[in-house]
Amino acid sequence: MATQMKIDVAAPGDIRAVALAMRDRDVAEFSAISFADTREELAVALESRYEGNPSVMCARWKDQPACIGGAIETRPGVVSLLFFATDDFPRLALPMTRWLRNELFPRLLGEGGVHRIEAAASAAHKDVLSWLYTLGLQPETGPLAGYGKRGEPFIMFSKVADVRSPRAG
């Protein structure tokens, strides 16, 4: 069966729609690193921060926004992953994983000029930690105590390209 997933730059309203319908564990994770306390406040904050950014993508399932993802440049050559989804994500998990590993990451680490892809994930969000491994990222830290606004621990993951220049002489 052909996948019914379509990935494009997030259109106006996509971020808010997914944020309002995102999985409860995504709300908990994003709320931990946001000033927002409710799902509605979080949706407004995410929309305000990311709408119109060409690095923020929306994957649709049966023409409905199902997940938002992005590789946001935080420093020269470094991108931080952004990802949250609705309960439809299990239908997209395999094609999304393939797309990230086989298309987006090689493009970023190749001609995209990126040497580091990083992601901070809640230590309690076990399926996300597992997914980051599947994507080829490795943990750089154990749980970072006090990372979230209520002391929630997070773990930093990364995928780093070798950027050492050849030695002269």
List keywords for this structure.
169 residues, 35% helix, alpha+beta, 5 helices
Global outline: globular
Largest sheet: 7 strands, mixed
Distance between the termini: 56 Å
Supply the helix-strand structural class. Answer: alpha+beta
Helices and strands, in N-to-C order?
EHHHEEEHEHEE
Task: Tally the helices.
Answer: 5
Strand order of the largest sheet: 1-2-3-4-5-7-6
- Which stretches are poorly predicted, pLDDT < 50 over at least 5 residues? none
Strand content: 25-35%
Arithmetic mean pLDDT: 92
**Secondary structure: number of strands:** 7
The percent range for helix content is: 25-40%
Kindly provide the radius of gyration, computed on alpha-carbon positions and rounded to a whole number of angstroms.
16 Å
